[in-house]
Amino acid sequence: MSNWRKDHLGASSSEPLKVIIIGNGPSGICLSYLLSGYTPYVKPDAVHPHPLLQRKLSEAPGVSILDQDLDYLSEGLEGRCQSPVALLFDALLRPDTDFGGNTESVLTWKLQKERAIPHVVLGRNLPGGAWHSIEGSMVTLSQGQWMGLPDLEVKDWMRRKRRGLRNSRATAGDIAHYYRDYVNKKGLGQSFVSGAVVTAVEWGIPEPSGSGAQDPSPLFQVSGFLTAEDQSQQPFSLCAHNVVLDDPGLVFNQLPKMLYPEYHKVHQMMREQSILSPSPYEGYRSLPEHQLLLFKEDRQALFQDPQGLHKVFGLSLVLVLIGSHPDLSFLPGAGAHLAVDPDQPLSAKRNPIDVEPFTYQSTQQEGLYAVGPLAGDNFVRFVQGGALAVASSLLRKEARKPP
């Protein structure tokens, strides 16, 4: 990693990079794994419990999933995700997990270095992204087995660490450690640069003269600064043929009641509470459809109810929990024109970046990809499908280039 920083971040490189991944969360880690030459194949003796998918998989024995038609393979799959490729990859990695089963993945992985695509992953934190910013003792919403990345199950990793899942879930600290360890164990560290803050991404930059490109095409220019151990900032500017955006934030949505009873209990408390009657729950009061107007110096807060009446409540602590919002300020116009509805604010839940469903490439800008919550995939178990789609697209681009 230090050599990469010295050669590329310390000075401008005349040779454009193939791919720059902005964000080192689970999506970025999984994509780096795929771009490093790790290639998924269906095990010769594997039988998938989904009959239609099994029939399709048997039609191309010995052909990598990356080289197959993802549209065709994912047709007919259903689940708690809108992305067909995400459902496909999840079904291959965890065939019957939604039915409470623990059938092993039907995939086997081969390291084929000749298929690797040079890339770099830029992240503010250590590999794992926002997981390193969460209180380590917090328990994950998703089951621990759903937090894993390809070819290294969380339960196996925790067993080797002499750790255990708590009611089938892991702590945020364990998951952060797992992601960092995954990068090391899979030999991906040379592509990761931590402490990198991206401040601008521009496109339409001409190919440098003398680069040897037979078909020069406009490039992306990624600029920012690298924070050193002494907190000094070193600016960098890199050019690349492709850029992948990986939102480092965490978004939780659509929590099944059977798996998350405590969250549904809170929702029940919110619905059953009436401000006009004594609370059935000691120490809890909900204020539905109220608007916070003012925090007063005497530890009181002023609210306005739906009828416009003002009410004052005493308080001792305030937590602002308004959900996550992607920060794409480094893009022109903060990336608003890339959204499904460019006239509305970009939102991971309601208005994500508009991408092609089987490549995750932006419909507005060739060479720009988005994965994870930015593309509408809000669970770790599903963000990996976006990485599969991007890797497949990039490999096809490389195959089309003249020798």
TrEMBL record:
<protein>
    <recommendedName>
        <fullName>Oxidative stress induced growth inhibitor 1</fullName>
    </recommendedName>
</protein>
<dbReference type="GO" id="GO:0030308">
    <property type="term" value="P:negative regulation of cell growth"/>
</dbReference>
<dbReference type="GO" id="GO:0008083">
    <property type="term" value="F:growth factor activity"/>
</dbReference>
<dbReference type="InterPro" id="IPR029731">
    <property type="entry name" value="OSGIN1/2"/>
</dbReference>
<dbReference type="InterPro" id="IPR036188">
    <property type="entry name" value="FAD/NAD-bd_sf"/>
</dbReference>
